[in-house]
Amino acid sequence: MALDQRKTDFTQVGTRPNRPDGLDKVTGKARFGADATAPGMLFGAILRSPHAHARIKHIDTSKAEALADVKAIVTRADFSDAIKPAPGLEGEQWNVLENVMAGDTALYDGHAIAAVAATSALAARDALKLIEVEYEVLPHVTDVDKAMAQDAPVIREGAADYSVPDGMHPNVVRYHESGHGDVEAGFAKADLVVEEHFVTEATHQGYIEPHACLAQLGQDGKGELWCCTQGHWYVQKNCAALLGIETSQLRVTASEIGGGFGGKTTVFIEPVALALSRKANRPVKLVMSRPEVFRATGPTASTSMDIKIGMTADGIITAAQGTFRLQGGAFPGAPADMTAMCAFAPYDLQHVQQVGYDIMSNRPKQAAYRAPGSPMAAYAVESVIDELCRKLDLDPVDVRLKNAAREGTRASYGPKFERIGLVETLEAAKAHPHYSAPLNPGQGRGISCGFWFNHGGETSVSLSLSEDGTCQISVGTPDIGGSRASMALMAAEVLGIPYESIRVTIADTATLGYNDVSHGSRVTYASGLATIKAAEDAVTKLSKRAAAKWGIPEDAVKWEDGHAVPSGPNAGNFDPLPLAEITRDMGQTGGPISGHFEATPEGAGVSFATHIVDAEVDPETGKTAVTRYTVIQDAGKAIHPTYVEGQFQGGAAQGIGWALNEEYIYGEDGRLQNAVFLDYRIPVASDLPMIDTVIVEVPNPGHPFGVRGVGETSICPPLAAIANAVSAAAGVRLHALPMSPPRILAALDQQRANNG
């Protein structure tokens, strides 16, 4: 099916069948990362730095090694840059290794220093207490603005790349600038210009399942790894590099995953478990504790942002400018470029400029969290647009409609948009009963748009038919959002067989071609496209078998509703031949029938959403409650609408936590102070309203069924929509997230003081 001949009439796509993994998960049968076991298994534990920044002068493991229960201890010397110094690791792989196990310097509170494998988890933890480390404590910095000040301690000399302008502090390691037009000329045309500063604190993805793995690596360089991950080919590639073994000799199997949201797209403990296993010559299981997850895995970046927007009295944006400073921990990689590019993407602007700075600090290496960078950018930009609407007494949806990006709009970051659905989400928002519903005293309403790029990535799918006419599909993208059901629905649509007759399996790295990580909202788009193409490949072979049976040319057969039929009266008068009848005899007509597809799809299509939020604020306590929430988002085509609605609601729920409660809190000593869920407060059911959803479907021209990714865009508008609602309810603009009660009270007190 050519992309310019997209299917629009569906029989199975768009329905809501039961999820294929539901029974296993509700009965406890599903196996997650910590459920794996092996004969002779040892238990691993990791010693972590108690300092935010310290030189490691000496490590003495002799007392721990003397324990009978201890079977292996590893330090940085047991990884490939030490045992195979040439050619050595470079770039991001070196950064990954440095994060997995510290070299000469501990760069943040929680940085791994050494690891132990013992006969029990208790023995391993006891052994850690006997490892003696001599530190030279160094100056540290954890704040993004302070980290780029000229007097800030240097995290690592020479980490900056060519993009950084001259004169910047060495902690500034990447620089991005994009836009078009002349912003100064644009500001001169404005009737009102608003310029404001915003900050957001780092937040964690908050997945319920901590990182866990079971590793077995022999002296011959052959290994097995079972782990909870969003991308086991990425794990395979990096673990092999970090341990100096051949990639093909390490087989990685992805377990079920108890949440990831981008935080399980890299490696933290897997190379350590493999190194311990190689040294002990036994399987090693390693499971993180919750404090370890907070201290040593990747949260979002924290930000400092300056936004300037000009607008005419009738609501036309004349110019927009943004500066985005992000710290991504003690390594390059904060998504400063994506933050800058997402910031003004929803709008058709003649004059726009965005600048991003990637800054290092003494914090853990940041990781993705649903549309990395975009939620923070939207918070700042959409807050200023809301402020302009209030000061000019303009309807916030009408203003966004006037300025909305459309097909053919030149994006703020460069290319022209193809068919997009932002206008449709705004029109749906304006027509929704929520938007016109009356507000109670003390309540405010907020609106925000959000944007995400979406991604394609390397993808491989294999499909095989059984003699009874059922189907098995092997995909390489871990199911983090219902993709097994979506793949089965798309294959069922092409093959013309029941959804229930298809089983989708997540293949390991030894049984399928390379697959990119489940991230970037790519799975339903890319794996779905590959599944459709693999099913079409199988249909071609099925039709060929039917043609041979009938004695007619292959092009005289077409496929309809699970049957081979003659393509027209000239092709002959034959009864439709069902799939199950063709597969029943396939052993005698040419052998197994299967379908395959491998590619790097590049038509992912961008995605937009509009959120409406009502909130109320208690002026005496600063307590905030979100009372109503509506998510409106373009899905292109909702393959399984229930899963799509779940993605919409999940992004909104996480956005509520991010906006109101969640933050990393570091003390003056640079140590994380709230490394458990009791102190790092994610939303619970009583914190959330009913979250209504509206699925808009503007087909993506880059997918046979019109699919757009939906998993990330849903978290882009919440921070701003909630901030706009809270600011309206409180009567004062909030410029920092989270909007916790102390911050709201401080803003109210400042307003009272300013008003005399």
From TrEMBL:
One Pfam family recorded for the sequence: MoCoBD_2
Name this polypeptide is given: Molybdopterin binding domain-containing protein
Lineage of the organism: Bacteria, Pseudomonadati, Pseudomonadota, Alphaproteobacteria, Rhodobacterales
Source species: Phaeobacter inhibens
Positions of the UniProt region annotated as Disordered: 1-25
Aldehyde oxidase/xanthine dehydrogenase a/b hammerhead domain boundaries: 27-139
Keywords: Molybdenum, Oxidoreductase
Domain of life: Bacteria
SUPFAM superfamilies noted in UniProt: CO dehydrogenase molybdoprotein N-domain-like, Molybdenum cofactor-binding domain
Gene3D superfamilies cross-referenced by the UniProt entry: Aldehyde oxidase/xanthine dehydrogenase, a/b hammerhead, Aldehyde oxidase/xanthine dehydrogenase, molybdopterin binding domain
